[in-house]
Specification:
alpha/beta, 270 residues, 11 helices
């Protein structure tokens, strides 16, 4: 059994998993050979994958600090991935010590790290759940026990929606999750795109790598990502290249930010 009580046999090490590949992009060690081979193949075809992953993580930190600074004290982080410090609760508690965080991921290996790295300080919980089943996530006892849905919530969907196919209705999934949130809540979302690098080209090949993984990759243009914020008022500067969302001076002056292949945005529910 894993630390969170999930059978070890649920961990599939025969195919690459996006969470473990992402861990590799960020320089982590919680991945398997199959994940490393797949990640290296993506990097070979799409060299900006590394800087994009790092920029995506930096966006998450900036966005979390912002929404907590606006008074949010509870966060649902879906698709959290392998814990990489500073994690969401650590960033949030730099601003306010009483922030509660519910982490959700569909990879049992994340659960093996949750006790030590995510929920060991109290005020945090982990749920093994799939975003394709949003109602089940919302009904889960750990979510219900930690999150007060009468108060504003920050919903984090960072680098997860591009693993939802069109047939799985990404807009419907976000809408179902959003319906549970009161006005004044926030949606923090990033999504892979080819908009900043011309034609799909090599990204087509990168998607082939993910077809062998436990989740397929579907990069989308602006016109398909923007509707995910239906019901939310986008904060300035809107839905933009993730590295351009309220960057700090170091990012602003870096040439690397131009290579990022993620959209990022923060919306307030109206």
């Amino acid at each position: 059994m894993t630390e969170q009580g999930f059978p070890v046999e649920q961990i599939d090490t025969s195919r690459p998993h996006p969470a473990r590949m992402y861990d590799y992009y960020l320089g982590g060690r919680d991945n398997y050979e199959v994940d490393r081979r797949a990640a290296e193949e993506v990097i070979r075809m799409v060299p900006e994958a590394l800087v994009s992953a790092q920029a995506n993580r930096a966006f998450l930190h900036r966005a979390v600090r912002h929404v907590v600074g606006k008074g949010v004290r509870q966060i649902i982080d879906i698709g959290t991935g392998i814990p990489t410090s500073p994690n969401t609760h650590e960033v949030a508690r730099e601003v306010a010590a009483d922030v509660r965080v519910a982490y959700v991921d569909n990879d049992p290996i994340v659960a093996t790290h949750a006790g030590a790295k995510l929920i060991n300080q109290g005020g945090a919980s982990f749920v093994l759940g799939d975003i394709r089943e949003p109602e089940a996530i919302l009904r889960h006892p750990r979510i219900q026990g930690l999150i007060d849905f009468t108060e504003p919530v920050a919903l984090l969907l960072v680098a997860v929606m591009h693993f939802i196919t069109d047939e799985e209705d990404p807009a419907g999934i976000v809408a179902t999750l959003s319906e549970a949130l009161p006005k004044g809540s926030y949606l923090v979302l990033t999504h892979g795109t080819a908009d900043f690098h011309g034609e799909i080209g090599e990204d087509e090949d990168a998607r082939e790598v993910y077809k062998n993984a436990t989740a397929h990759l579907t990069v989308r243009p602006y016109d398909e990502v923007r509707p995910l914020f239906k019901g939310y008022e986008l904060l300035e500067p809107g839905l933009v290249q993730a590295s351009r969302w309220r960057p700090d001076d170091a990012v602003r002056e870096s040439e690397e930010h131009r290579k990022v292949s993620f959209y990022g945005g923060v919306g307030r529910k109206v």
